[in-house]
Each structure stands twice: as C-alpha cells, then as structure tokens.
Amino acid sequence: MKKERNDCLDAATLRRRAEARLRAVAKKRDPARTLADTQRLVHELQVHQIELEMQNEELRESRVQVEAVLERYTDLYDFSPVGYLTLGRDGVIRQVNLTAAHLLGVERARLPRRRFEHFIDHSERTGFQVFLDKVLASHTKAVCEVTLLKKNKGPCSVQITAILSNDGREYRVTMVDITERTLIERTQMFLLNSGRSISGEDFFRALACYLAETLDMDYVCIDRLEGGGLDAKTEAVYFDGKFEDNLVYALKDTPCGDVVGKTICSFPRDVRRLYPRDASLQQMKAECYIGTTLWDSRRQAIGLIAVIGNQPRDNLSLAEAILKLVAIRAAGELERRQVEAETKRLASFPMLNPRPVVEVDLAGHVHFRNPAAEQMLPGLGERGPEHPWLVDWELVMRHLSESPDKSMVREVPVDEKWYQQKMNFVQDDQRVRIYGADITVRRQASEALLKAYDEVEKRVVERTAELVRSNTELALEIQRRKQMEDALRCKTLELKDKTISLEEANVALKVLLREIGADKNELEEKVLLNINQLIFPYLEKLKKRKSDAKVKAYLDILESNLNEIVSPLVRNLGSKFLRFSHTELQVSNLVQQGKSTKEIAAIMNLAQSTIDFHRNNIRGKLGIKNKKINLMTFLTSLK
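RESULT FIELD:
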C-alpha cells in the first residue's frame, strides 16, 4: 500500500511540473497558430506523453526490483543462522541481527550503543581486546573463540570472525554458536584423559561427576544390567553434588526400564508424573530425564546411563549428543570390566582344580603346574622328560603332530599310582597341556573285575553244562506233561458236557418242583377255604340245634376229624382268610356268590346290622377299609 501511494504522488508531481513547463513554453511562442500547427502540436504532445509513461513504468519496475533486493538482503541479514554485528572501533555495538541478539540473550532494540565486551566472560575480555587490536593493525580477517555470559542461562561458546571495514571506522563481526562442538570436544578430551588406567580415579565415578557438571543435572547414575535385563546394579551414583552408595533395583515401572534397548530416551518435563510408581523420582522431584543404553561388542544391552534434573528442559539435543558420545566409551569400559572378571574367574579353574594340570613345551620342559600337580607329582619341574609323568615324550610329540585333532589320551604309572593323561597340543603357543586324573582305584577295580570276570566265565561254563542237562530232562518232562494235559483236556470236555446236561436237568426239575409246590399250596388253600366256608359253618348250626346225645357225639367226632385233616394245611398256608371267623368266612363266601346283605341275613337267619358288622370286619382284615373298593370284586380276585 505504501508503494502504491508513493507511485501516485510521483505521477501527480510529474504532471504538475509538465503542465507548468507547458505554460511557460506557450507564453514564449507566438499565440497565433493555425489548426494544422495545433494538431501537430497535440500529436507531438501525445507521443511525448506516451514516452514519459513508458519511462515512468520502467522507473517503477526498477524501483520494485531495488526494493525486493533490499528486502531479500535485509531478510538474509536479520534471519541468517550466523550472528552479524557491526562494532565501532571503541567496541560499541552499532548494528546487530536477530541471531546475534539471541546469542547475547538481549532484545535487539536494547543492544545498540552497548559495549560488546560486557557480554564476554571476565577472564577472556583482555584477550578479546587484543584480538580486535590485531584486526585493526593487520586489516585482515581473524578468528577467535570466546564464552558469552547469558542472564539466567548457562555460558555459550561462540566463534568470532572479524574484519575491518573499508573506511577503517568499524568492525564487521560474525558469531557462530559452537557450544555443542566445544562440549563435545571437551567430552572427547575427558574420555581420552580419564579412566582408571590413566588417572587412577574410578572411571564411572569420574564420568558421573563430569556429566552432572557439564549437563547441569542433579542426578546421574551408571548401571549394569542383571537378571536377564530385569534388574540394574549401579556402578556410580552422583546426586546433589556427592556420590551415593551402589545398589540393585528393579527396572519395572521406571524410565530406566523404557531406556533399555533404545539408543536414547528423553523426557523434557513431567517425568515423575509419567512414572508415579518410581519412588526415587518422586523423592528427588524429578522433572526432566535422559537415558541411553550401553551396548557390548555383540550388540547386546549390558548397561545404561541416566541423567535427571529438577527443572524442565525445552531442548535436550545437546545432552542427548553428549550421552551418545560417552555411551560408547562407557560401554567399552563396562564390557572390559566384565571380561576381566570373567577372565579372572576362568583363570581360577586350573588353580582350584583338584586334579593335576601341567603345561609342557616341545622339549618336555614344564612351564606351568597347578597346586594339585605340585603335590601329586613331586620333582616334575626339575626332572622334566625324565619324570614318569612325561615318559616316552618323543613318541607322544610324534603322535600329537600326526593326530588330526592334535590330542591323545594315555595312562602312565607314577609311584605306585596310575594316572590318565588327556593331552592337547596348542599350535599358537607350541605347548602341550596335560590334564591328569588319578585312576589308581579305577585300575585296581578293573583288574579285580577282570579276575572276577574270568571266575564268572568258568562258572558260566559249568553252569551252562548243568543247564543243558536240566533242559534235556525238562524237555522230556514237558512232553510227558503235554500228553497228560491232552488226556485231561479230553476228560474235561466230557465232564463239561455231562455238567451241562445235569444243569439242564436240574433246571427242569427245579421248574417242575416249583410248579408242583405252587399247585400243592393252591390245592391246600382251596381245601382249607372250602372246609371253613362250606362245612364248619353248617356244623356249627347243627350243633346249635337240639338233638340227641348220639348225634352230638357224631358231630364232635366229625369236627375233630376235619380239624385233624386241615391242621397240616393250616400250618403251611399263609392266606388272609385264616384270620376270618367261621361266620366271617360264611359271609365272605355268600358275598362272592353275589348275595346282598338282605339275602345273606335271611339265609343265615341273622339281622342285617349283624351282616354289616361282619362285612366291615372282613374289609378291615383285608386292608381295604374306608377305601373305594368293591368287596365282591376284591374277594373274587383273591380266589
């Protein structure tokens, strides 16, 4: 908008100037003009106007290009990744771009007319002034490195390149942030000069202290992984300016557990809120966290380094770069310690071996004996090949040289004892390693076993002959028994057939006897029932009638004989009718015949109520009293 407004103002000004000049020229010329002159003049004016418009357009385009170039160079200056400053010869800042203002930690508007040396570390101000004097004197470009002090921030290392302007009144200065490079170089120098082998100080403790001071962190721990990567044992712990005791802790629910297996893992803020179960983070009020895994030469995770701060960090890239750098050296140191411990452990094996272990050169000279060899083989070192342990040494060496696997096993006697030797030829060392074992007891047992074996062989031969004879006799006995078994088998088959026939006959007899018994019981029950129902009631009536003594005697005899006849039947019969009286039997018989109560009363010459009484007694004795069952039908079913 501003450019368009300026263009309009310039066109109006130019028009006013052209009109004024036209009026001045018109006054000087003759006012008397012809029409042709006027038309020619108008034509020339129109042509001149077009020429002026074309010149104005070209000027406007040139101005736009100049402003675009100016804007581009301004952008390059202000937003360049390199800091630009213009200093007077007195060191006062005259001009500065945004990058330089950021490096100085002050707003750009507040920097002009301030001395640049006030932003430099006190110990380096004199050297910087010497540097400016050198530039002024030589009129050539020069380079130096200084440390800038920022308010409320850590120091910043920058590389300054300065050259004098053409008029010699000011310095053109560039600044590049080399803090990361400086720290990395310092860290490389620390790694080069530190370590137990050089300084005598424990490497991991020195590294923890260095990381805490360099990265401005409150807590640093260097751990070794244990328990299949589930636990960690600290090698060095530096917290709040002092070292803590080493300990073992579980990695579960901790940020260190998430670090394992990753090159780098960082949390700029709120780490203790992300891991609420980690009591250590809560106690130290941790905010930021950075961790890296330590890898061995086989690319296996063997440890980790973790640094923790109490303040959040917006940018952790520098700290991550430092950790990645030291992790390589720390992993090598940790693996070296593990290898040393493993080597020491393996070296103790031959020394603690209860069996003799000896190392001999090609000539038979002994170079190593473990304590067991010194005790079991006295004089071995002094006698060498003359000792029984190394008997036939030339033959042994010839056999080892010809053997494909460069090994052999033999047995040798030494002072009434026998030893088994397992020999291996080490090509690189040109030595033979002999591993011995006392086999005296085993050899004695072998000899005794051979004697016992010979004795057993003799007994086996004798026993074999006895067994042959016994087998012959046994074969004959088996043959005789087979014949007897065949005969017995035939008899058994005959007996089985007879048994089957007898069992069938027995079953038939049992069925027949069961039917006869049932018929007998049924006949006895019918006879007894008929006598009780058809004879005894009428005998009672005859006895009640008046008759002479002779007739009564006959009746008593008849009753007594009938009782004698039915007495065996009474003992064998379990019918329900046995509980009936003679009158009840007579009533039940008439009910079965279909007689009514009135008809029964007339026949028996009794009252109807008496008949009803006997009917109720009969139902009670039969178990159907107060039940909806017809008495005639029930009695008929029993019959």
